[in-house]
Design brief:
The chain is of the alpha/beta class and 559 residues long. It is built from 19 helices and 25 strands. Helix 7 packs antiparallel against helix 10 (244-250).
Length: 559
Amino acid sequence: MAEVKSDIEIARAARKKPIMEIGEKLGIPSEHLLPYGHDKAKISAAFIAGQKGKKDGRLILVTAINPTPAGEGKTTTTVGLGDGLNRIGKKAVVCIREASLGPCFGVKGGAAGGGYAQVVPMEDMNLHFTGDFHAITSAHNLLAALIDNHIYWGNEQNIDIRRIAWRRVMDMNDRALRQIVGSLGGVANGYPRETGFDITVASEVMAILCLSTDLKDLEKRLGNIIIAYRRDKTPVFARDIKADGAMTVLLKDAMQPNLVQTLENNPAFVHGGPFANIAHGCNSVVATTTALKLADYVVTEAGFGADLGAEKFFDIKCRKAGLKPDAAVIVATARAMKMNGGVKKEELGKENVEAVRKGCANLGRHVQNVKKFGVPVVVAINHFIADTEAEIQAVKDYVATLGAEAILCRHWAQGSAGIEDLARKVVELAESGKSQFSPLYPDDMPLFEKIETIAKSIYHAGEVIADKSVRDQLRSWEEQGYGTLPICMAKTQYSFSTDPNLRGAPTGHTVPVREVRLSAGAGFIVVITGEIMTMPGLPRVPSSEKIFLNDEGFIEGLF
């Protein structure tokens, strides 16, 4: 058997084209590309503004079952499908998120696809890339510094320092910073208070950048951030301390989408990166809407399983941006079905058709959930070498009982040649005109009812429980005019429930709401459930231990 190359070895051997040539494929003149080296560039705001009157292409969402240690390959399938559509003669663009350094050095690894379905340059994308995350971190922390500075110099806005709502961020997993006391050391350092850090991808600034349509919209949303409350509980906004202008300046270049390429030299937009379990989990609106003006097909992904990523893509991103997806692909693997069926990770190499059948309940729940949004669905079975024909057939047979089709995809090993069948099916669904997309709940539904609707309709929970303080807070926001905002559930990605160990398709479970946060600038309410953390920690053996520079100066250990 031939040696299987690692993702980074495959990426390093890629024959990349100059980024200006990739831009030409989409009709982007070189003067509207701001190059970052030879293989990546930003697209100018002027060019994007000039595309407004053009007709949109078709939008395809790639989502997945709940992630398992067995691996699913959602980004890999997104990239493979983009290449596959180009292979069968469609002009297609891939739109994915940027990678966060936290999980890259922690446990999850990179976010550029895998095997022969990758976006390159892989090393740059998984590290500093074009500096967007650093700009977001800087803008967020500028606001934090301005808040403390405003209080130090007299507190003109009468901020109640017990009610400051703005924490700090960094793009790294660091549990020690979750809850801290700042401004220690005497009068010159300000007023001591309890605060903390979130990871950059959970920042409201990240969400704002990903939902803004242009720089003017960005500045308005940044100004709408609620930073604190006064003693009379009236909100203080970022614009009240004149922070919005400077923050916009820091984000000027970060607002422009990044253009890179797949291993097969097809265009890919990689822009923005909110987490899907603690934020809304989609790439930027400006990247997606621009791609729709330049291509026949745009293939985008939403983070983690469809219970989180797809629900937020539909209920937050599509609602806010006026997007209408034409089809959805749900990625699954026979291995993951076995894990959902009770098989341990070390036993996954053995054939177990019965466990596959048992585990398919998780996949079935996601298929039915996506259909609730009126979007046609196809299942992509991401092929692993140890999969048997009987296991694959079991998944296909199960999906057929749901009135959908499951298609075996070999893009990891074969690139676009291994995913042609899925590409043709996606075209068939998208061009059928069967998509009747509509969000799960209306804008005017009360906030707690929105939470219950998601929990009961998508998670199949029996009830939602919340302290009186949480319910009172939601009612207060409704009275202040925020009742029409959508809900962004912060929940574990590993289960439909709030218990990460509860696999399959549980029903009747309880969803405890621990805290609610108003993201007035982004335009949604974050609902924190269970034990979810907005600052992850590193595992016992972090991925960083295996990342190093080899003797030739190349990076090893990224995956």
